[in-house]
Please model this.
Amino acid sequence: MKSGFRRISQVLLATCAMAAVSSALAEAGRASPQPGAMSDTDVADKVDTLLAKMTDEEKAGQLSQYFYFSQFPPLAQKVDKEIAAGRAGAVLFTTDPKLVNRAQKIAVEQTRLKIPLLFGFDVIHGFHTIFPAPLGMAASWDPAMVEQAQSVAAAEARAVGMHWTFAPMVDITLDPRWGRIFEGAGEDPYLGAAMAAAQVRGFQGRHIGAPGHIIAGPKHFAGYGAAMGGRDYDEAEISENQLHNLYLPPFKAAIDAGAGNIMSAYMALNGVPATADHWLLTDVLRRQWGFKGWVVSDSGAVNSLVTHGVASDGAEAALKAIKAGTNMEMIPPGQNANMVSLPAAIAAGKLSRTELDAMVRPILAAKFRMGLFENPYVDEAKAKTVFDDPKHALAARITAERSAVLLRNEGNLLPLDHAKLKSIAVIGPLADSARDLMGSWVFPMNSPSGKSVLAGLREKLGTKVAVAYAEGVQIPQRVNPSPFGTLDGTNKKREPIDETAGVAQAVAIARQSDVAVLVLGESQDMSGEMASRATFELPGRQRELLDAVVATGKPVVLLLTSVRPLTIFDSKAAAILDLWYPGSQGADAAVNLLFGDAVPGGKLPISWLRSASQAPMTYARLPSHAPADAFKRYQEGSNEPAWPFGFGLSYTTFRYSDLKVTTPKVAPGHSVTVTVNLENSGKRTGDEVAQLYLHQKVGGSSRPVRQLKGFQRVTLKPSEKRALRFTITPADLSYWSDITKEQVQDESAFDVWIGGDSLASLAGTFEVAK
Ligand code: NOJ
Model:
């Protein structure tokens, strides 16, 4: 026993450090088989019968997934040959139902065993109907709504013949320089776990093979969000403490929710490339967590084991990947498969047939569960009806409205009063762009459609309000364009405009208008894969434009589209509303929010840093040696973010009172209940996300100054009061200990706060003691 605390080793808690919400949902998901699902024994029998007929070559063929780019006929023809030869188990990136059926026909008619292909695609935030960037969806703090959004995405993807998505991305990151912050849920493992589980449920439905649903593949396992310096693909050095307490919990939640697939990460984690990491892919994922699905490598990640310097050629790379626990190789366009070398490895005694069979089994099982042997084809006429379902557009608009975060609203400038408004100036390089509102991971093959904020405003305001528009300045094109820009045309050279004249024109129209609405931020290709940034400044001359319009003295509303904490806190814009990338219905959502037909209720899933040089940062930092505040700061300014994690305003106000810990002392292994009263103290109906934070005062390890351990998004009418109840479970009170290398619960006093952001001041205490 150590002084000041006693540690209770919690073997029972060993695999469960995440949100109560995810454990409860996992329980529900485990009551298998769900109605309509094939039983495990049935699937296993079918798989074994098929495996017994397969040659080693045919087995290895199931382990290859090819990009199938119909736009590039020579590449497609090459893949056709591989399919016909039985050397492809899956393809990706063809979403035209006719081509899906054409490729599938080759597999089921020309191969000896007629094994159908799995079709995969990056369905990240919608397919045809585009939802907000996943980081934006996390800002809704509304897992049920996010589940609904991904079930819409699944229905649309399934309608074009997809069986599987490479999503959700559940990588935690503390570094917004990393472009892929776009795809995750931000910096917090509790919110991240809730979003991960919700998305898996949304994609997959009640079970793998549920009609209108697709298999979820959480990614990138694991630690990609810690890529050094926020540079894409760079190595990640993560302590065991951080890995278990910060980076792994959302993956565990996704697996507990039943995810059928998982994707290995590109980078080396603590020196071991993730695709060859036996500890990660076998010990943790399969042995500790009980994952029964299959691991796909990220695109080219098997081959890049040679680049990493852990294999001398493709054959050795395939062997290392398979032995570590990677089942399937995703093969970049134009490259050759490495898994084809496995039969030779068996012949040479380097791999056993049992090992190979174990890697093939979950892939065949997924095909049986998806019903592909009975029904390999997609109904080519179905997609349009599914895309046109008005519920989809409605869901996307509501999701965009509920994801928006109001960062500033001086003098209650928002909502604008429709009746009083006579003229409005709409300004900025993103004001008349529908495409940029949709964000990254949207391609021509998604056939998206949407409108710009300018078009949405004109539609809403009709002829009663004069709408003037000025682009002002341009967002510079990327210095190192992403290959994705070649797919969607963004890389084409643009004609420059005269930006000095553009700023002058914007100022002129602002002067003649009652209010100026600026739509600024980052273009869609500035985040996502291969889209890291070293600065959070508004790109190009946008800041100059903003300041010039603010200097007119007219009221200024700044609408932001971006996933980064752009450096705008020091501007004098009276109102700032972050839309993230709001999706295909983002314009209607923005207009509804501007005029109060929707009320912002989202909260930041990241700390809004003052500048890129503060990264990485989290509100959940460890307490440390603390001299006077002044010494802790950067010489140039504050340590604190511009707006804290969890922050977001509303058009109304909320008051918290009467925090009560109903169980001030509990024995280890028991739950604690905390209640609080929440009142809408303003004049409009609005939403508040009540957040509960904990701090363990003394323990075996130093514990974060506060950590999110509960949240509830509630809607209250003016003066309405609600008593909220939070249950803190033993899992919430435990953590992975670097001393004992297991999940532990310490005896300790705890601080608890409930409020509207991570600086919540209404506090209580309780004690965990025998
Ligand atoms: C590479 C990305 O890292 C991964 O997230 C994506 O799913 C694959 N490419 C396929 O597009």
